[in-house]
Hints:
The complex is a heterodimer of chains A (523) and B (346).
Chain A: E1 21-30, E2 33-43, E3 47-52, H1 59-66, E4 74-79, E5 82-84, H2 89-94, E6 97-100, H3 112-117, H4 128-142, H5 157-168, E7 175-178, H6 187-202, E8 206-211, H7 214-220, E9 223-228, E10 231-236, H8 238-243, H9 246-258, E11 283-290, E12 295-302, E13 307-311, H10 318-326, E14 331-338, E15 341-342, H11 348-354, E16 356-359, H12 363-367, H13 374-378, E17 389-390, E18 393-394, H14 396-409, H15 426-438, E19 444-448, H16 456-471, E20 475-479, H17 483-489, E21 492-497, E22 500-506, H18 511-519
Parallel strand pairs in A: 3-8, 3-9, 6-7, 7-8, 13-20, 13-21, 16-19, 19-20
Antiparallel strand pairs in A: 1-2, 1-4, 4-5, 9-10, 11-12, 11-14, 14-15, 17-18, 21-22
Helix pairs in contact in A: 5-6, 15-16
Chain B: H1 6-11, H2 14-35, H3 40-51, H4 55-80, H5 88-109, H6 112-130, H7 132-141, H8 145-165, H9 197-215, H10 217-227, H11 229-234, H12 239-266, H13 277-287, H14 292-315, H15 321-345
Amino acid sequence: MPEGTGAATTGADRGLDVPLVRLSGITKRFPGVLANDEVSFDIRPGEVHALLGENGAGKSTLIAILSGVLQPDSGRIEVNGRPVRIASPRDAIRLGIGTVYQHSTLVPTLSVVQNLMLGQRWWRPLGRAAALARLAELSALLGVRVDPDATAGSLSLGQQQQVEIVKALWRGERVLVLDEPTSMLTPQGVEELGQVMARLAARGFGIVFVSHKLQEVLAFGHRVTVLKLGRKAGEIPPARLSALSPAEATAEILDLMFGRGAADPEAPRRRASTIRADDAPLLEVEHLSAGEGAVQDVSFTLRPGEILGIAGVDGNGQKQLAEALAGQLRAEAGRIRFAGRDITRLPVARRHALGLRYLTDDRLGEGTVGGFAIGTNLVMKRVGEPPFWAGGFERPARIAAHARELIGRYDVRTPGPEVPIATLSGGNIQKALFGRELSGEPRLLLANKPTYGLDVANIRAARDRISAAAAAGVACILISTELDELLELSDRIAVMYRGRIAGIVGNGPDAERAIGRLMVGGA
Amino acid sequence: MSAAATPAAAALPAWLRALVPLVLALGIGALILAALGRDPVQFFANVLNRAVFNRSGLQETLVLMAPLLLIAASLIVCFRAGLWNLGIDGQFLLAATFASAFAAAWVAALPYWVAMALLFLLAAAVGAGWAMLPAFLKARYGVNEIVSTLMMNFLGFGLSAFLIKTLFGDPEHPAPQTTMLEVAERLPRIGETLVHVGVVFALLVILAVHVVMTRTGFGLRLRIVGHNPRAAEHAGLNVRRLTFAVFAISAALAGLAGAVEVLGVRGVVRADWHPGYGLLVVPLVFLARFHGVAAIAFVFVFAVLSIGGESAARRADLPNDFLLIMMALILVILAVTDHVASRARG
C-alpha cells in the first residue's frame, strides 16, 4: 500500500489543489450507446463531490471506470498527480479507491467481522483480534456503532451500508465512492449517511456521492457535477455552491440537467392529447395484485389514444405490473378488463391476439432470441399462424418479406433480415421490437422503459413512435423512470411506490412536483 | 487463434467445422497407434475393409445404425428444445422389453403388419410413459431433468429385469428372457441382404425429425424454448406443455429404437442385456450440432468404427477399449475446437 494506512487524519494536509483522483476526457462506448463522452471529474480531499444525473446519464459507467470494473476507451486517470491505469477492482483498492456498490456485497449469513475478514489472502491467519480493532477504529471514524458479531443479513439496510463503507475503507483507502447509496435507505438512514460523509470529508477523505435526487445532492454535496446523456453538462464548485441560496442552486442544477428553461414548468414540449374521450375505456384494471406483494391493489382505466405514464423509482413494482397486464405473471387478486372483456385469466398469446402488446424492457433477456434471425424474431409472437406458416410449415419467403417491410418502415439498420438479431445495436433492436409489437392490429401498447440505454437519436425515435401510436388510437401505458419522457408524452401519470399506485396526476404545470412527492412516498 | 484467422474460421461451413475434430482425433489416434508400435495405416485399412468394403460387413454396419439413428432423432428433439433427456437408455430398454414380451403372441394372433405396427406403438408409448415423471417434475417444479432422467435409467433397468424374471419370462427357457421371436418373423430384410426394413424406417424418421425441427412452427417453438425459455414465455408459448411434448416425443423415439433392435435383430431380451446405446449417441449428436443429416453421417462413422474397429483391434493385438479412447478423443477435441472458435468470434 503506497500510503494511507493508519493515516486517517493526515490527508487534509496535502493541499487542496492536488486532487486525489483526476479523470480527464474519459470516453466509453457500448454497442449503440455512448455511455461517457469526454467526461472529466476530480475527487479532492475534504470534499463530497456529488455526481448527479438521470438514469442512463452515464453515472454508473463513470463509477465502474473509477473502481476498475470497466476500462475507458480513451481518457486519462491520475491518482495523486501520477497517471495510472485501473485495470481491476484490486488495482482500485491498491490505489486507495474504495467503492460501495448499489447492491450489497456482504455475505448475509456471515457476521459483520467475518465479512470484513473475507478479503484477506488465503494463507494469512484470520486475525480476528486485529480485525476487531480495525473495525472499532473505523466505527469511531465514521461515528457509527456496529455490532461485530451481528449476522450481516439481520442488519437494517442502513447498517449494512455502514458495514460496506467500513469494508471500502478497510485497507486505508482515501477515496470513497458511493454509487446511489440512498436508493434503498429510509429518510433517517439517508440523514445518517449524510453525517458519515460529512465526518469523512472533515478528516480529509475524498468522497464521490452518486445520486439522482436533487435534494440530497444539495444537502450533502460540496461540489456538484451533472451528467447528461454521457456528457458532463456542468460542474458547480464549492465556492459557488455555498454562495447560492437553495432555490438558486436548485434552479441552476435543473438548468444543467434539462437545459435552460427546464425549471420553468411550462417549458417541456408536451404532445397534444389524442384521447378519444367518447370511447369506452379500453382497459380497466380493478384491485390488481400480483407477484407476491410486488403489485398491490392497483386500479386504473385507460381510453383509446390515451398515454398513461407510470412513474416511480425503479423496482417499485412497475415490471411486475407490466407482466401481470401482459399475462406473464398470474394475477393473485383483482380483475383486468380489456375492451369490455375479462382477460384476467387469459394466457399471453390470447392477450396478444386481442391486440394487447407488451414491449418489454428486457430486450435481450426475453424480448428476443439473440441467435435467431431478425425475421424469425419479428414473427416470434405469431409462430404457426398464417400467412407465415401454412399447414404447420414455415413459409420463409413470407417471413422474409414481412421482415423487410418492418425493417424499412421502422428504419432498422441491418444488412438484412437473416442477420442474428443480437448483432444489432440496442437502438436497432428496439426499433425492430416496436415493429413487432405494432404490426397487425395493436390496440394497447404496454411500453416498459422504451428508451432505456438508447442514444439520443433512438430515444427521439422511440418517443415519436409512441406518440404516433397514440395518435392512431392505440392506448399506451408508458413505464419510465425518465421524468422528462413522462412529462412529454403522458396524458396522466400514475406514480408507483412499493407496489401501489401512490397517486395519479394529470399532466400539467404542477405535475413534476406532485410526481416527485409521490415517488418518495409522500402524499 | 489470431485475429487475422477469425473471418476465415467464421466463414467455414458448419459441416467442415464438424469434421475438423473428427479428423484431428483420427490423427491423434494414428499417432497413439504409431507410438504403440502398430501401423496406423494398416489399422484404419482393416477398419474400413471390415466395415465398409466388405459386403456383409457393410450390412452389419447399416443394421447397427438403425437403433442409433432413432436415438439420435430422440436426442435432436430434446437437445434442440434445451432439455436433457439422458434417460434414453431406460426408455429404450423398457420399450424393447415390452415389445419383445408381446411380439411372438401378437404376430401369431394378428395379421403381420398390424401386429408390427401395434408393437411399434406399444414401444413408443412405453418409452414416452417412462419419461412422464421427469417431464412432470421439470414442468411443475423445475427439477433438473439430467438428474431425474439418469435416475430413471436405473429404475428402468431394474424394472425391465424384474418383468423378464416374472411376468414376461419365457417359462420354457432356463435363463430369464422373453419369448423368442423367430427369425422368420422378425422385420423383413431388403432383398438378399441382412439389412432389415427398420434401417430404412430409422432413416426416414430422423429425416422427418430434422424437417419438423427446422421447418415447422412446432419445431420453431421448441427451438425458442431451447434457446431462451424466458423469450418463450414472453412470446406466449406454453412452456410447460411444450416440455411434456418434448419428453414424450423424445422418449417415444427412444422406445422405437428399442423396438427396431428387438424386432429387427435380436428377437429376444435377456434380463442382463442393456446395450447402453444412448450415452454413446449423445456425443455424435453434439458433433452433428443437432443437425439430422449430419447426425446420419456421424452415426455411420461410429458404426464403422464399432464394427470394423473390433476386428482391427483384435488383429493389432489391442484391447477393444481402444475404440472408446478414439471416441473420447473426438469429444475432447470437439470441446476444444468449439471453445477456440467461440473465443475467436469473441
